[in-house]
Specification:
By secondary structure, the protein is of the alpha+beta class. It is built from eight helices and twelve strands. Strands 2-1-5-4-3 form a five-stranded antiparallel beta sheet. Strands 7-9-10-12-11 form a five-stranded mixed beta sheet, with helices on one face. The protein has a two-stranded antiparallel ribbon with strand order 6-8.
Length: 493
């Protein structure tokens, strides 16, 4: 599977294109060499035959037919290997001289041209079959003369050259393919490092940076530019987060005073209408304080990172406690509230933070599931992971918004009319990140309307080796107020 993914990479396809261009150029070069070599050997054979024909013509002019016959017989006698081929016959094919007995097939239509034939018993050849090339022309008096050469060695040499070219092309293609694979593999590794780091950064590890090799090549320059861009983004994000956290911190104290003054006023007011208005103002102040407390709680969790005090927590027992707390609320809405808790599922985590996360998700499920709806809470173990899951038959979340609901203050359009501040899932995400957890949102019943929502949180299961991580939660700078209430912060995702 990894090899197939390697073959689909753009770097391998580019290397493959280069291989095709390189192989084509090598093929054209070898073809030119073969053409020039084969052409040279054929031309040399033809020149030798032409030279012999010129010599025989000179003998014929000076000595006549008898002299021609004599010189042919002398040349045959001097050439025991029969490299030269001769045949002189009368008009009715009666042999006068030569080292073959009969005319080759197709020689009757040669008309003074070149022919290629095989030396075999049909033409009266006594040795093994060999290839020959000859020229035929008419001699005065109706005589016909064939002058040729044994070209079997030349043909075999051509075959050797062709075989060498074929092997050379095969080796060239194999080496080009291997080189392209190695080159694309090296490039893919560098790209994969960038992709893996980018994915981890997108998952929230903003402190990571893309590693460089120090070679100052294109990839190093790309990595450095991306790292500088990340530094700038983190700087801007931290600035915005610091401003929002500072506002929440600075406004919480005067809002608390205002709320207390309104509550005191509520006690002293005798008019029923005025008491109702003051009561509404107290409720609004409580909602604002809950929002600021949630903001500060998320800020502390994000600042804390992995420095929480972790203990071994029985996830099924913790979820059971939370379900016991919220079961009555589900009964008030006549909702079906079921539990499927696998015993013995343990994680290493902060019990208080985990309880907040679990309570938030259960409370959201109850809040956004209509009456007569169904809610199912699940704890199970999957491989090396522990899974906590809440399924409901509520309004659900559109697919194009599932990646955005963990942002602060983000609320799905269908839930804007319901109470909440859009910070519940942000808090859940922060707690899950501390516990190295992953959150997956999906539709409970994709084919139904509404589809409902299933929230799955997968965390590493306890391995039997307890690791208590050191520090306690750092204080928010300048925060001298009391710790926010542990009541779960609920909001529509």
């Amino acid at each position: 599977m990894k090899l197939l993914s390697q073959l689909r990479t753009s770097s391998f396809q580019l290397a493959l294109l280069y291989m095709v261009v390189f192989a084509t150029s090598v093929f054209l070069l070898l073809a030119f060499i073969y053409w020039r070599t084969a052409g040279f050997m054929t031309a040399q054979t033809d020149e030798t035959i032409e030279a012999e024909i010129a010599g025989l013509a000179e003998q014929y002019r000076s000595r006549g037919v008898n002299g021609l016959i004599t010189i042919i017989r002398e040349r045959v006698a001097r050439d025991p290997n029969a490299k030269s081929i001769y045949l002189l016959t009368t008009e009715d094919s009666l042999k006068l001289a030569g080292n073959i007995e009969n005319w080759p097939e197709g020689s009757g239509s040669a008309g003074g041209g070149w022919i290629n034939f095989t030396l075999n018993p049909i033409v009266g050849w006594q040795g093994p079959e060999r290839l020959a090339r000859a020229r035929i022309f008419e001699v005065q008096g109706g005589l016909r003369l064939l002058v040729g050469r044994d070209v079997d060695d030349v043909t075999n040499l051509k075959r050797v050259i062709e075989t060498a070219i074929n092997w050379g092309m095969g080796i060239t293609l194999a080496l080009a393919l291997l080189g392209g694979f190695l080159m694309s593999r090296s490039t893919t590794r560098r790209i994969e490092v960038i992709n893996n780091t980018s994915r981890r950064i997108m998952n929230g590890h903003l402190s990571l940076r893309i590693p460089t090799r120090g070679t100052e090549d294109d990839f190093d320059q790309l990595a450095e530019n991306l790292n500088q861009m990340l530094d700038r983004i983190v700087y801007l994000m931290e600035g915005i987060r610091h401003v929002s956290d500072s506002i929440a911190h600075d406004l919480r104290t005067p809002l608390t005073r205002l709320r207390n003054q309104l509550e005191n006023t509520l006690i002293t007011v005798d008019n029923e209408e005025a008491r109702e208005h003051v009561g509404q103002a107290v409720a609004e102040a409580d909602q604002l304080l809950a929002t600021f407390n949630a903001l500060l709680r998320i800020a502390r969790l994000e600042t804390r990172g992995n420095s929480a005090n972790l203990t071994v927590v029985a996830l099924d027992e913790l979820v059971s406690d939370a379900c016991e707390l919220y079961e009555a609320l589900a009964e008030d809405k006549e909702q079906s509230f079921s539990q499927s808790l696998e015993a013995g599922v343990k994680i290493e985590g902060d019990r208080d933070l985990m309880f907040q996360m679990i309570s938030n998700l259960i409370d959201n499920a109850i809040k956004y599931t209509p009456e007569q709806g169904a809610i199912n809470v699940i704890v199970r173990k999957e491989g090396a992971g522990a899974v906590f899951e809440v399924q409901d038959s509520g309004i659900g979340i559109p697919d194009d918004e599932k990646d955005q609901v963990f942002q602060r203050f983000y609320r799905v359009g269908k839930s804007r009319s319901l109470p909440g501040n859009g910070l519940g899932l942000s808090l859940v995400s922060a707690v899950a990140e501390i516990h190295q957890g992953q959150i997956l949102l999906s539709d409970t019943n994709p084919d139904e309307v509404p589809p409902g929502l299933t929230v799955s949180v997968r965390m590493p299961a306890f391995t039997g080796v307890h690791k208590r991580i050191r520090a306690t939660e750092p204080e928010t700078p300048g925060d001298t107020s009391t710790t926010a209430s542990s009541t779960p912060e609920t909001s529509q995702p």
